[in-house]
Amino acid sequence: MNSWPELGLSGNSAYIWLNGPTEKTRKLLAHAESVARSVPYKVSLRWLFYRIWQEKCWFKTKDKDRAYGNLAMTISRAVHNNYWDPRLLADETRTPVIRGEGCKSADEWLSDFKGGMDVSCVLDKRIGQEYSVIVVFEAAAMHSQFDHYCRSYYVDLWPFKGQASNPYKARLADRIMALDKKYGNEVVVLYFGDYDYHGMQIPESAFADVREWANCAVTIKRIGLNSSPDDNEFQWEALDDEAARDMILGALDQFVNVSTIEEILQQEDEAEAKVLEALESLEI
Q1: What secondary structure does DSSP assign to 51-81, as a single string?
Q2: Does residue 72 sit in the same domain as residue 185?
Q3: Does residue 28 have a pLDDT over 80?
Q4: C-alpha to C-alpha distance for 15 and 134, rounded to whole angstroms
């Protein structure tokens, strides 16, 4: 075997709190955890920071970048000192590819199959809709939020993560053309981004390219942010969950017929039940 060096044997090299965190740090960590757990999906550190930053009472500095770094360092130290669950927050900038696992035997697979674990009838949820909807959002760190609220509407999610690359914009244009060709209805893109210079400039530039490369009719709407509470720059992550939810669902309800989707889901359930009934007598 090759003598490659092993990793991770040095132990925890993080800063250790010999007497635990200070009282102020304890209060900050407790409040941050309550904010993180206040929504029904995992949030990013950036989202958590903006929610706390808006309260204007937890940081001495007025430098937002420095305050963010301080919070990140505090939570990191809390994790390595067992005062913070390392699985509490989401990392939505990295996606692992996991392969190779499965059932131990064909009999186990059949048993699971009969139990309904792998029986799924997937029908097209876009059939019968007046529009083919795509949701695009600037803040890739908010993927969990958009996935949570858009899941039952069965729409595409395309995170831009700032300025999208030309290949990514070309893929979006190809997707628009594919939907146009397959369903023949109006393709609608709903965009959600920051209310600042770059938040206005990025989608305008990006969608000019998308429109050119799509080579078909497409409606592109900027749903938010189109204003801010105090007429100053404002990031999507700074929205509280209720405001974000209302904006997302308010737009989706204008373009997606949920009752049509529910009828299709009922058809799926009925088909799966028939398959499971037929599988009861099957043996390998």
Answers
A1: HHHTTS-S-S---HHHHHHHHHHHHHHHHHT
A2: no
A3: yes
A4: 45
